[in-house]
Every structure is written in C-alpha cells, then in structure tokens.
Amino acid sequence: MPDETYLKIIYFLRLKKRLDLNDPECWTEKMQWKKSYDRRPLLTTVADKVKVREYVIHKLNKNVMPEILWTGKNPENILFEELPNSFVIKTNYGLRTNIIIKDKSNINRTNK
C-alpha cells in the first residue's frame, strides 16, 4: 500500500475527516504532508531518540543529555538488577509508549 494511501486511511480512522495533502490547512494535515514529502536526512536523525543525542552534543559542543541506562532491541536483555530503583523506559520510535517505573520491585516481568 502506498504511504499516502495508508496515511489517508489512518487519518480518517483517527480524526473522522479526510486528509487533504494537496492543500493542507490544519496542523494535523500539515504534519502528514511533512511526513510524506519532507525527506531531509536531519529529520530522521532528530526523530531517533538515540541518534539525536550525538547531533545535540556535536552542535552544542557539550553533553547536556540525560544518561542512558540501557539500549537494545530485545527488552528481555535488560539487566533490571543494574538499574536504579526508579527510571523511565522509552521506545525509540513510538507515541505514548513511555513507561515510568517508580519502584522496580513492583515490575511484573512475566509474559503472562
């Protein structure tokens, strides 16, 4: 399925209105247009929570980024014993996927 068709379907399902990429008026339409047609490599870098760190450090000439405790693709590899009692789990790509852990002793790590 072409990207534009997919975006139009998702847009309609979520917002109950048609997506006009030829003449975007509202902010949500303009963002969809940007995703479809603005292909600057920098946008890929700043959308990636890990890659943007290197970019910010390079541009500012100093590290102002919070510490990363773990990165990887398989959450089963997280060494929870080595993490502090409270932390935040953030996926690299995704909306509303952050998990705030206030007390790691309350984490249910089973797959059930």
Topology:
Elements: H1 3-15, H2 27-37, H3 41-47, H4 51-60, E1 87-89, E2 99-101
Describe the structure.
The chain has 112 residues and is mainly α. It has helices spanning 3-15, 27-37, 41-47, 51-60; strands at 87-89, 99-101. Strands 1-2 form a two-stranded antiparallel ribbon. The radius of gyration is 19 Å and the shape is extended.
Give the tags.
mainly alpha, 37% helix, 112 residues, single chain
In short:
The chain is mostly helical and 112 residues long.
- Uncertain regions spanning at least 5 consecutive residues: none
β-strand number: 2
Structural class: mainly alpha
Report the biggest beta sheet as strand number plus sense, adding barrel if it closes.
2 strands, antiparallel
Q: Going across the biggest sheet, name each strand in turn.
A: 1-2
Q: Hey, roughly how much beta strand do the residues contain?
A: 5-15%
Give the number of helices: 4
